[in-house]
Amino acid sequence: MCEFGRILHHLKNNIEEEKNSVLLVGYQAEHTLGRKIQDKNPIVNIFGEPYNLRADVFKIDAFSAHADRSDLIDYIGRIKKLKKVFLVHHEEEQGDQFKEILEENGYKDVELPKPGDVYEAT
Fold this sequence. Notes:
two-stranded parallel ribbon, alpha/beta, 4 helices, elongated, 2 domains, two-stranded antiparallel sheet, 6 strands
């Protein structure tokens, strides 16, 4: 999502050149630098400084670092004596939908923790 690491340096040094291209190969969450580039905002902030987005921007959805819904259901179905499911890496609407799907599939103890929530592992 272009938020941390070396990508910031690559973008900073190349995003203003019309001859360059940025290829996004994964999902870009709202309010991230990657989404702003995907949406082709004319100016993006990198390291707190504004940069003109002059490079071409392309996106392909052929790569993903995440399992899809059926993969996740299959995965948790293999866990013996599963007591509780915590959904912690998602956008709000998708988390709510996945919680409902899990509950429809028999998982009754599904939590959507919020920042600061504390749970005790037993």
